[in-house]
């Protein structure tokens, strides 16, 4: 009896967004009297970081500090329309809508600043720190706060913008099945190293090495988090998640989600990930979606590593000890 | 059955409360005490999200009838947080990006607090064992384990600086 080591590789191309009936998201932005900007969305941040990334995109486009952008999310009764956070679409769709809204608001902001400074709006730049000034003359400038005050109390203007990103519906060509299903594709590759116990059929994932090409990584720390969390879910799909018992005794099977088997802190693998940036042509600042793809390549990589370790090729998930032991029996010519 | 009066010390303050029979500690914390930092997860002792400290030991507050801990000292995430700034464990979680949706975070931090009070220099395995009763569905655990190890370093160096 032995613990057999193996290594497997798998790669994934993953679509960003979908367009089954047209795929829109909208954003509205306005400045408060204090020169903060509020972005109203119907999108939900459930931990993936759309609020953080949305505020980054708005701050970059407006030319104001990140801290002066507030994101007001997730009231689908009152907010502008969003299809939702799925299909790895959030950063791309909502990000594009925010960027468009921020561009419109920036135009008004620069116009008010130009009137206040008695210069041409085309000569003005933002310093990203809360001031607007004449290009090349930092002293001839005005704080964004004062621009907001002037807009509200002198000019009777709202520094606001509307953003809409729509991926139009793509009809399927009946003859070929051809269509345009997404906006861009992200790519990834995982190398998994596993150990298979040929007596118990138990698999331990020892290490996963990942490379991700996700356009522009808007927030590398958040992207890295998605990779690690997604790889964990990949391990979970590959080895654990089933309503069948982990060992073939019905009493060991899950009765509800609290007993549904997923890897715990003791089952995680050493993780080494790199991000490669090749900006997309249509994402905000070149971003693509990373959300769902992170659980993809780990699964076939683990299956391939198991094959490399013990010669058993399992083609259905999860790869439970029972499947491995049956496979080993078949390889040895033992009847099941 | 009648309501009863239970006395607890919650985050250092003595509290008396009228509780319905079978009320759990989390009911009291969240509903009558307004301490909503403790999260209600599975309500069957399987996820660890509702973990608080009872007399210094971790306890799942969803499983604990409050009448059975009369006189106990209870500490929640609100009690761990200093009046100014953050506790070193919170700081380590923040700096290490050890939270995504945040639902498991207060339970994880309370478990870490109990571990580090008992063992200021834990190994990675010690940390894994300590959080093995706590479920996280976002992070893949790696960042949480790293943050708790980082918190241990922060607390030790703060203690060292104080001694010197």
From TrEMBL, chain A:
Domain of life (superkingdom): Bacteria
Signal peptide positions on this chain: none
Coiled-coil region(s): none
GO molecular function, one term: oxidoreductase activity
Residue span(s) of domain Aldehyde oxidase/xanthine dehydrogenase second molybdopterin binding: 4-267
The name this protein goes by in its record: Xanthine dehydrogenase family protein molybdopterin-binding subunit
Organism: Mesorhizobium zhangyense
Organism placement in taxonomy: Bacteria, Pseudomonadati, Pseudomonadota, Alphaproteobacteria, Hyphomicrobiales
UniProtKB/TrEMBL annotation, chain B:
Keyword Iron attached: yes
InterPro entries according to UniProt: 2Fe-2S-bd, 2Fe-2S-bd_dom_sf, 2Fe-2S_ferredoxin-like_sf, 2Fe-2S_ferredoxin-type, 2Fe2S_fd_BS, Beta-grasp_dom_sf, Diverse_Oxidoreductases
This protein's UniProt keywords: 2Fe-2S, Iron, Iron-sulfur, Metal-binding, Oxidoreductase
MF terms in GO: 2 iron, 2 sulfur cluster binding; metal ion binding; oxidoreductase activity
Domain 2Fe-2S ferredoxin-type stretches: 4-80
Domain of life, source organism: Bacteria
Pfam families tied to this protein: Fer2, Fer2_2
PANTHER family, sorted: OXIDOREDUCTASE WITH IRON-SULFUR SUBUNIT, XANTHINE DEHYDROGENASE IRON-SULFUR-BINDING SUBUNIT XDHC-RELATED
Protein name: (2Fe-2S)-binding protein
Species classification: Bacteria, Pseudomonadati, Pseudomonadota, Alphaproteobacteria, Hyphomicrobiales
């Amino acid at each position: 009896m032995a613990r057999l080591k193996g290594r497997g590789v798998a790669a994934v191309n993953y679509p960003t967004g979908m367009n089954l009936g047209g795929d829109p998201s909208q954003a509205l932005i306005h400045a408060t009297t204090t020169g903060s900007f509020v972005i109203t969305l119907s999108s939900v941040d459930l931990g993936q970081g759309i609020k953080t990334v949305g505020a980054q995109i708005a701050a970059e486009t407006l030319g104001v500090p990140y801290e002066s952008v507030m994101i007001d999310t997730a009231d689908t009764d009152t907010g502008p329309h969003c299809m939702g956070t799925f299909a790895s679409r959030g950063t791309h769709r909502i990000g594009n809508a925010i960027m468009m809204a921020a561009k419109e608001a920036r135009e008004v902001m620069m116009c008010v600043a130009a009137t206040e400074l008695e210069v041409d709006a085309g000569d003005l730049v933002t310093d990203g720190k809360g001031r607007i000034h004449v290009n090349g003359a930092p002293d001839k400038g005005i704080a964004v706060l004062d621009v907001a005050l002037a807009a509200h109390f002198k000019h009777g203007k709202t520094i606001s913008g509307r953003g809409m990103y729509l991926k139009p519906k793509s009809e399927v060509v009946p003859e070929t099945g051809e269509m345009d299903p997404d906006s861009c594709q992200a790519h990834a590759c995982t190398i998994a190293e596993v150990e298979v116990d040929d007596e118990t059929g138990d698999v331990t994932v020892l290490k996963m090495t990942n490379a991700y090409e996700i356009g522009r990584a808007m927030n590398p720390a958040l992207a890295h988090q998605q990779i690690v969390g997604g790889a964990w879910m990949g391990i979970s799909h590959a080895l654990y998640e089933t309503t069948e018992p982990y060992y073939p005794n019905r009493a060991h099977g899950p009765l509800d989600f609290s007993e549904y088997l997923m890897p715990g802190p003791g089952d995680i693998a050493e993780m080494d990930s790199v991000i490669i940036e090749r900006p997309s042509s249509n994402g905000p600042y070149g971003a693509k979606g990373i959300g769902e793809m992170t659980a993809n390549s780990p699964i076939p990589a683990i299956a391939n590593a198991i094959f490399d370790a013990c010669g058993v090729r399992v083609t259905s998930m999860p790869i439970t000890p029972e499947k491995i032991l049956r496979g080993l029996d078949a390889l040895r010519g033992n009847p099941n | 059955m009648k309501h009863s009066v239970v006395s607890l010390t919650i985050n250092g303050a003595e509290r008396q409360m009228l509780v319905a029979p079978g009320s759990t500690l989390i009911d009291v914390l969240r509903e009558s005490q307004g301490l909503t930092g403790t999260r209600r997860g599975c309500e069957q002792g399987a996820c660890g999200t509702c973990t608080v400290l009872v007399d210094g030991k971790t306890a799942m507050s969803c499983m604990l009838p409050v009448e059975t801990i009369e006189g106990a000292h209870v500490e929640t995430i609100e009690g761990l947080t200093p009046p100014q700034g953050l506790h070193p464990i919170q700081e380590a979680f923040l700096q290490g990006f050890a939270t995504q949706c945040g639902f498991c975070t207060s339970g994880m931090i309370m478990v870490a607090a109990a571990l580090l009070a008992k063992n200021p220099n834990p190994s990675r395995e010690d940390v894994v064992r300590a959080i093995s009763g706590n479920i996280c569905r976002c992070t893949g655990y790696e960042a949480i384990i790293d943050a708790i190890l980082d918190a241990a370093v922060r607390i030790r160096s703060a203690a060292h600086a104080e001694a010197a």
